[in-house]
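[[Sequence with tokens]]
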Amino acid sequence: MRRCLLMILLACAGLVSEADAQDRDPSFVPAHDWILVKETVETVQADIAAYLARWPAGSRPDTFRIELHPQPDGQVALLFPEGVPAPQLTRLAAWIGSPCRKRVPPVAAAWVVAPDGVAYYLESEPALDTVEEGQDPRDDCDAEGGLLTGASRAGQSVRYDVPRTRLVKSDAGRPYREAPALRRSDAATTVRVPLDVTIERSDALVLDTRSEPELVDEAIGDCRVLNGPDAAIGSVWFWHQAHRADVSRKLWHEAGRAAIAARMTTATTDVDKACLRRLAREAEIFDIVRE
């Protein structure tokens, strides 16, 4: 049954026409990078099928090919001949190596060049977060993998928050790893997949140098505008709502929650306090609170 489902999903992926692939925004610049993981080709195919089932590509997907090349050391290299949206590549690497989906997850390694030209080595985190005694760490587990860690070619340690597409500096991380020699197979397995390119952003995989306290202050600034006279202007209201929500998502982790809590101790106005309570709630439930 599982094999049948796999073949159906991959077959559906292959039905997306070549015309769809050519009808993309001319400003879209795909990433020509790759992933390496110690898995079988069959398991990687199943991972890709599950990935496509989790994130449907929408009504007008773009078609991309993924070539699976088995390596002599038992690993599989995922190559993207026409390129791929950079956020999709990192999300797929985190998905393949997600400890929420596999009891013994492999480390999925990715070599990717950001839109600003900086080369990064990133790999999945195979361990689950530590929780209090009596709790199952899988209860609140993020199947996407949640986090990739690594470094730039220049040696800057980084962590990449996959769901929120935020790349930040890290005090401790894995060193940059040069890509190993790749053996291309004449009998590589090719999978044609429909992917959504709307998640591609100009700042995706570009290092965000803002600290968590600075992000909190940005969100408060948006809240003040949204509670002021300029909010009556539709375009102003829409932009600040969208920006506040985007900043909030970048605070949905331990350091972000700590920054919100610290700012609460100095807030003096009702607008600021209400904004911080909303930010704290969103960081707790991992969702945007609608007004």
